[in-house]
Design a protein that fits this description.
alpha+beta; 4-stranded antiparallel sheet; about 10% strand
Amino acid sequence: MFKPFLKILELYIPEFIKRNQIKKLFKIAADAFNTEQPLVIGLSFKECLESFAVFTNDETQRAISSGKDIHGIKTSLYNHAYDFGHDLQRKLNIKTLEESLKIVEILYKVIGIDFHASTHGEITISECYFSKFYSLSVCKIISSLDIGLIDGLSGGKKIEFSNRITDGYKCCKAYFS
């Protein structure tokens, strides 16, 4: 039953679902930075995505320059993204690592991230929409969202990044640790 659903998602995800999911990411980020979410009413999904990139970049830069508790922000981003991923795992009845990774690939394609993973534990991101907005220091903080989401969807498997596009590499690399 799950496989046909994946095929449908690969072909089409309605705009309202994409907008709803980006709103959840805005809430996660706003909570982590202890700030208000920007208003995105009336914006297209693409405009929401750009707004999210700018918002998270600006809030991260502000947190770094003002000496805020970066570890606390990363922990909050991770925990909320983990819950988000775990909730998706339950709702979509994901049972295997392969299914988890396929969902991540589909979700990330929607937000401009070319994500590929092997069940052997290697993850490659050859393109990332957010790398146009983020410095390495911002990327290291905001990637707590990625780590939490993937951990939540995969039933608690942990990933670690070794290479990042924002550090001048051709692609991001991560591994299940």
